[in-house]
Design a protein that fits this description.
The radius of gyration is 23 Å and the shape is globular. By secondary structure, it is of the alpha/beta class. It folds into 2 domains: about 5-240 and about 455-480, Glycogen Phosphorylase B (Rossmann fold, 3-Layer(aba) Sandwich); about 245-450, Rossmann fold (3-Layer(aba) Sandwich). α4 packs across α5 (about 145-155), α9 packs across α14 (about 380-390) and α11 (about 285-300) runs parallel beside α12. Helices cover about 45% and strands about 20% of the residues. Residues about 475-485 have low confidence and may be disordered. It is built from 18 helices and 17 strands. The longest helix is centred in the C-terminal third of the chain and has 24 residues, at about 455-480. Bound molecules: GDP-alpha-D-glucose (GDG). The site of GDP-alpha-D-glucose has 24 residues, from α1, β12, β13, α13 and α14. The site of GDP-alpha-D-glucose (GDG) has 24 residues, from α1, β12, β13, α13 and α14.
Length: about 475
């Protein structure tokens, strides 16, 4: 087995200073970490990433935070300006909104791109410093799309692979990006590119066809190929999964069972509807609240008989748009509770904080309906985690058509268009009224998919498709020493 080097913008924890020489270590929330951490912990390797603080990385706290990781951790440092222009700027104010089809939310500041490249080069240097020729380098996500080019310029001989966790937009949207050609050229320096869904893969190939005239896309039955600059780049779709067994086992633990019973006991006679999301406009939280309000307005049988528990995990609050977005959510929650609550019923329970793992599992186990309605999402692991925790084979999943997970869970979930307030409102009623037999039949189907197509299978299929390539690459591509000029 080749040594695995995982590279992502963030490490699976964040360091934070709480005073002179006092540090806290917070486990990172988010899909990438939930998926990749258990894999690296199990098979060892190296994780390269940023520990979340601007400036110098304090040696002792970093060593303490990583001592028991089970794999080597290599930090990449970012200055405050780099954090602002690379992380908040290009990554989260250009690529993130654009790739989620929300082009009006983009700030196309040219300085962001320059810093994006600088930081990607630094990651490439960190990789080049520790990589051997037979390593498997696995770069993750939209923050590091330029790293392939920087690695190619450094003649790194290991297999260069990349996985995009977020969606890839269609050409009409991608073409708004000022650096469209430079970005595609950089991505095509990887040997192997993975996407979440068929749709993302198709969009990527469509963009390559339209933007990179000198590239040739060839469809093969199993994998797609692009020929570019005398190299062959292989592409595939690999829907990310979860560690099903660990969620299922966690959901049966005594403390989780107790807490889920307690949760239910707090709302006697009510069905509980659960939303759990990072604070992000792509997750469709205001649209969901409006649909819930509409459901309460038009379907009085729901009043006093459902409670929406909406957990919003603080995220990127330094970006003004996220701050305004939180205020919108606060106002909507206030409006719904103000309009509908009675002396013994509050329609929305709103938590703006992260839940501990046991509480999260207790919520999955205790809530009758999961309400997962992103405007667009690469995959959405919350939907899968909910199914894994429903060991009683009960529970309804209301799921957006535009979540990558819809492709796999469509046979069991109630699929909705999150922009269609009335349809979503009616679907809440449908979920509320659904018989136990129907719930069980649907949940069984979804659990089967989530169990089988789990995170280990995701890693295996990505690594095995990638290592076929690693065996093929040395003679032809890895010896290619031509330097590609920076753009
Ligand atoms: C990106 C893509 C893709 C959430 N709240 C709490 C908590 N979480 C954990 C969940 C889940 C993860 O965070 C969220 O994952 P998602 O997939 O829903 O979303 P993103 O963070 O946007 O992830 C996404 C993913 O990458 C993987 O490829 O699916 O489309 O956007 O694992 O459990 N965890 C805890 N407390 C919380 O309150 N402990």
């Amino acid at each position: 087995m080749n040594r695995l080097i995982v590279v992502s913008n963030r490490l699976p924890f964040a360091l934070d200073s709480t005073g002179e020489d006092l540090w806290t270590v917070t486990p990172a929330a988010g899909g990438l970490v939930s998926a990749v951490e258990p894999v690296l912990r199990e098979r060892g390797g190296i994780w390269i990433g940023w520990p979340g603080i601007a400036g110098n990385i304090p040696k002792r706290p970093f060593a303490e935070a990583t001592r028991d990781a089970g794999y080597k951790v290599v930090p990449v440092a970012l200055s405050e300006t780099e954090r602002d222009e690379f992380y908040y700027g290009y990554s989260n104010e250009v690529i993130w909104p654009l790739f989620h089809d929300l082009q009006n939310f983009c700030s196309f500041d040219p300085a962001f791109w320059e810093t994006y490249k600088t930081v990607n080069v630094r990651y490439a240097d960190a990789i080049a410093d520790c990589a051997h020729a037979d390593d498997f380098i696995w770069v993750h996500d939209y923050h590091l799309m330029y790293a392939g080019q920087a690695l190619r310029e450094r003649s790194v001989r290991a297999a260069l692979t990349f996985f995009l966790h977020i969606p890839f937009p269609p050409y009409d949207i991608f073409s708004k990006l000022p650096q469209q050609q430079r970005l595609l050229r950089a991505l095509l320096q990887f040997d192997f590119l993975g996407f979440q869904t068929r749709r993302d893969l198709r969009n990527f190939v469509g963009c390559v066809r339209r933007v990179m005239m000198e590239a040739k896309a060839v469809a093969r039955r199993d994998l797609q190929l692009v020929r570019f600059e005398k190299r062959e780049i292989r592409l595939g779709h690999f829907p990310i999964g979860i560690d099903f067994d660990s969620f299922e086992k966690g959901a049966t633990s005594e403390v989780v069972v107790q807490r889920s019973q307690q949760l239910r006991a707090n709302f006697p006679g009510c069905q509980l509807v659960l939303g759990v999301d990072r604070l992000d406009y792509s997750k469709g939280i205001p649209e969901r609240l409006r649909a819930y309000r509409d459901a309460l307005e038009r379907h009085p049988e729901l009043r006093g008989r459902v409670v929406l528990i909406q957990v919003v995990v603080p995220s990127r609050v330094e970006i003004p748009r996220y701050h305004e977005f939180k205020q919108r959510i606060d106002r909507l929650v206030g409006d719904i509770n103000g309009r509908f609550s009675t002396s013994n019923w509050l329609p929305v329970q709103y938590h703006f904080r992260s839940l501990g793992r046991e509480d999260l599992l207790a919520h999955y186990r205790g809530c009758d309906i999961a309400f997962v309605t992103p405007l667009k999402d690469g995959m959405n692991l919350v939907a899968k985690e909910y199914c894994a925790c429903r060991i009683d084979e009960n529970g309804v999943l209301i799921l957006s058509h535009f979540a990558g997970a819809a492709e796999q869970l469509k046979t069991g979930a109630l699929l909705v268009n999150p922009y269609d307030v009335e349809e979503v409102a009616d679907t809440i009623l449908k979920a509320f009224r659904m018989t136990d037999a129907d719930r069980t039949a649907r949940m069984k189907r979804m659990r089967r998919v989530v169990r089988e197509e789990n995170v280990f299978r995701w890693v295996d299929s990505f690594l095995s498709a990638g290592s076929q390539l690693a065996r093929r690459v040395p003679s032809r591509q890895r010896n290619l020493r031509r330097r590609i000029p920076s753009m």
